[in-house]
């Protein structure tokens, strides 16, 4: 009996260990893919920023187009914004049965709003704009760092990222109670994106903010940024739900976001910030920053010309004095190749597509190489917290330092190692170690930090000797069952008390018998989702993987060792995953320890083609670039109508052609845009945009 008990115990421990290993591997896959997507967003934005910085408009129309391309909302002054978003001119029809708001708001308004959203009703655009108008007025009166005291309420509840998951917010209110004079809340940013009900979450939070301004506090997160919203869903959500007045609502949201406070301080002892800190974080400076200047943290206007100009001029054969070798005055814009390429006629579509494909490939690669150099050069303000402040003149120095302060608190993550270094995994912010935390807490006499920004499997996690607490409130973030959500309650003693939950109706309906086997089934489901996403990532890089595999296949046998397979895959995807451990789930069959990599890649292609009836090589490119293409489409679509007008396309093409040195007349651009407009409705939708991209790739 004793031996049997020992065997059962050993079996159970091995079983639990395997489950934990599978759980951790699955988590690594989800996080690596998420952060890689953020890197793609930063690279794309830096590339467009570089093009814009070097573009010289030839007319007021082009200048207006450029000014609105990335800095939407900045050019609107107070009176202009109120006139543009005039909610009083919008009539509410008698047939409207949803909730109605009147100001000042009362608790009954919040209750009616919650009930309406539970019944899938929508708040009328007039009330949304009115609410945003009042919220903006209130936020403008708040300091950069909100101060909360537990003396005036029994406890303070701190919630982390919600990311558009309304069910989690409802569950928090159900468990913890609605905001009230005795129930204070701090919501720590990232209310929007990824989920499908970001707008509803903001409306609810703004409503409670106006009803209980002393009890409800909102911090800005890195997703309260209109450039991030273009990629991760909030922009699209607003325009789909409010097709008529969506543009006005979106503009108001953008302006409200930049007025959100940057941090909250509880009893002068607990600091709540969205991301983290760096070794240069200065609370005194954060309190004095004019926070509304930073509509988007992804881009900062430079105070002087980039130090890379001489280098670029040298590439183009230009001298630093602005003259060419012959002594002629150089053009004010940059030319990326010494001689202009003459475009063939658009009437000959195969020839034009072949020329376009080759030209774009060569010149875009040149632009990207120039952009990548920026990490080591202080004057070029790319998305990095390693901006050097030593070689900048005084007027620009303060602005850069302010930008870096906000960048770090919104995007940084803690790490177990000592020191502070660039956060290359996300592409921005920094990693800060325990020593940085200790120095920061001692400097400002703080007990600990509360931050969000990272999904945690249990909904919360301590690090740095329990001096840094991460709280994440969006359950089932990656997949149903992938993680719990949590919030933390702090009383006068400032001892954290956690409440965990999972907003999953399927899990709640299970019987006790079903629950006994639920963890295994749940892990399998989440694991399957993670590996499906990873296979898509592998398929999207088929061409690069083949090249990497061939480097280890000197004899051209079509086979490589599993060790070389793992090394090659990591060299291409750079996800930092334990590929040898993941191999059994990704590589089903091997012979004598060797992998036939071509047949393995063919299997990935067959799996994708079963879902999309497209040629494999084309599908690979679309899988790899779809997110970037959709973001580019939304950037060009200035009015967020879901359609690119001919004028928007023409101005964007001029932006590209000015740097590719492509001589294409206005008539040629007209011919090009009309050839993309397949249904001849005078606009280009995303499917036409994507189809045109495929046609260019398809031409030999």
TrEMBL record:
InterPro entries: Calcineurin-like_PHP, EF-hand-dom_pair, EF_Hand_1_Ca_BS, EF_hand_dom, Metallo-depent_PP-like, PPP_dom, PPP_phosphatase, Ser/Thr-Pase_EF-hand_contain
GO molecular function: calcium ion binding; Hsp90 protein binding; iron ion binding; manganese ion binding; protein serine/threonine phosphatase activity
Annotated ranges, domain EF-hand: 540-575, 624-659, 664-699
Cofactor: Mn(2+)
PROSITE patterns in alphabetical order: EF_HAND_1, EF_HAND_2, IQ, SER_THR_PHOSPHATASE
Alphabetized Pfam families for the sequence: EF-hand_7, Metallophos, PPP5
Keywords: Calcium, Hydrolase, Manganese, Metal-binding, Repeat
EC nos: 3.1.3.16
SMART domains according to UniProt: EFh, PP2Ac
Region (Disordered): 308-330
Annotated GO biological process: detection of stimulus involved in sensory perception; negative regulation of MAPK cascade
Annotated signal peptide: none
PANTHER family: SERINE/THREONINE-PROTEIN PHOSPHATASE 5-RELATED (PTHR45668), SERINE_THREONINE-PROTEIN PHOSPHATASE WITH EF-HANDS 2 (PTHR45668:SF2)
Protein name: Serine/threonine-protein phosphatase
Organism: Tichodroma muraria
């Amino acid at each position: 009996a004793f031996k049997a008990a020992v065997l059962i115990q050993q079996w159970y421990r091995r079983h639990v260990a395997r489950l934990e290993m599978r759980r951790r591997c699955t988590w690594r896959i989800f996080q690596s893919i998420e952060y890689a997507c953020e890197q793609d967003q930063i690279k794309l934005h830096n590339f467009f920023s570089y093009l814009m910085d070097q573009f010289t408009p030839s007319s007021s129309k082009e200048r207006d187009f450029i000014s609105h391309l990335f800095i939407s909302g900045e050019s609107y002054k107070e009176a202009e914004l109120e006139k543009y978003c005039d909610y009083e001119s919008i009539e509410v029809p008698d047939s409207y049965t949803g909730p109605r708001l009147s100001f000042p708001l009362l608790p009954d308004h919040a209750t009616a709003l919650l009930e309406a959203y539970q019944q899938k009703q929508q708040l009328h655009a007039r009330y949304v704009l009115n609410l945003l108008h009042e919220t903006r007025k209130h936020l403008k009166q708040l300091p950069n760092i909100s101060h909360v005291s537990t003396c005036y309420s029994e406890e303070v509840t701190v919630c982390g990222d919600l990311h558009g998951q309304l069910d989690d917010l409802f569950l928090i209110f159900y468990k913890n109670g609605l905001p009230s004079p005795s129930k204070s809340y701090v919501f720590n940013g990232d209310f929007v994106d990824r989920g499908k009900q970001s707008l509803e979450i903001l409306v609810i939070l703004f409503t409670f903010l106006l009803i209980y301004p002393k009890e409800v506090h909102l911090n800005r997160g890195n997703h309260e940024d209109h450039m991030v919203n273009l990629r991760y869903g909030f922009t699209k959500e607003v325009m789909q739900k409010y097709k008529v007045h969506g543009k006005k609502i979106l503009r108001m949201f953008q302006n409200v976001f930049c007025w959100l406070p940057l941090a909250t301080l509880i009893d002068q002892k607990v600091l709540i910030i969205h991301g983290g800190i760096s070794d240069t974080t200065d609370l005194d400076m954060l309190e004095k920053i004019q926070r509304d200047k930073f509509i988007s943290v992804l881009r900062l206007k430079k105070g002087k010309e980039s130090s890379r100009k001489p280098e670029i001029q040298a590439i183009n054969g230009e001298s630093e004095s602005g003259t060419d070798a012959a002594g002629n005055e150089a053009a004010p814009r940059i030319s990326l190749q010494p001689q202009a390429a003459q475009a063939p006629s658009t009437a000959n579509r195969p020839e034009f597509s072949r020329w376009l494909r080759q030209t774009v490939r060569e010149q875009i690669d040149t632009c990207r190489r120039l952009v990548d150099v920026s990490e080591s050069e202080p004057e070029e303000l790319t998305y990095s917290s390693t901006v050097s402040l030593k070689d900048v003149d005084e007027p620009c120095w303060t602005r850069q330092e302010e930008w870096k302060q906000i960048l770090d608190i919104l995007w940084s993550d803690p790490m177990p190692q000592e020191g502070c270094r660039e956060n290359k995994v996300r592409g921005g912010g920094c990693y800060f170690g325990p020593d940085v935390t200790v120095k920061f807490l001692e400097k400002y006499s703080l007990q600990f930090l509360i931050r969000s920004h990272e999904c945690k499997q249990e909904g919360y996690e301590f690090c740095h000797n329990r001096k840094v607490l991460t709280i994440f409130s969006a359950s089932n973030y990656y997949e149903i069952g992938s993680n719990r959500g949590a919030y933390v309650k702090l009383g006068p003693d400032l001892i954290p008390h956690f409440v965990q939950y999972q907003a999953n109706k399927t899990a709640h309906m299970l019987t006790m018998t079903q629950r006994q086997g639920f963890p295994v089934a749940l892990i399998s489901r989440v694991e399957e989702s993670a590996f499906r996403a990873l296979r898509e990532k592998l398929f999207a890089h088929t061409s690069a993987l083949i090249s990497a595999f061939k480097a280890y296949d000197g004899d051209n046998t079509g086979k490589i060792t599993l060790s070389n397979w793992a090394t090659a895959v990591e060299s291409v995807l750079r996800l930092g995953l334990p590929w040898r451990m993941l191999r059994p789930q990704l590589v089903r069959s091997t012979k004598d320890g060797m992998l036939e990599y071509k047949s393995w890649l063919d299997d990935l292609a067959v799996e994708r083609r079963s879902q999309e009836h497209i040629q494999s090589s084309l599908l690979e490119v679309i899988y790899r670039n779809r997110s970037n293409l959709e973001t580019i489409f939304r950037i060009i679509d200035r009015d967020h109508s879901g359609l690119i007008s001919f004028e928007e396309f023409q101005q964007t093409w001029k932006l590209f052609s000015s740097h590719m040195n492509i001589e294409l007349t206005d008539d040629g651009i007209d011919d090009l845009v009309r050839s993309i407009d397949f249904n001849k409705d005078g606009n280009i939708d995303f499917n036409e945009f994507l189809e045109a991209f495929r046609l260019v790739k398809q031409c030999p």
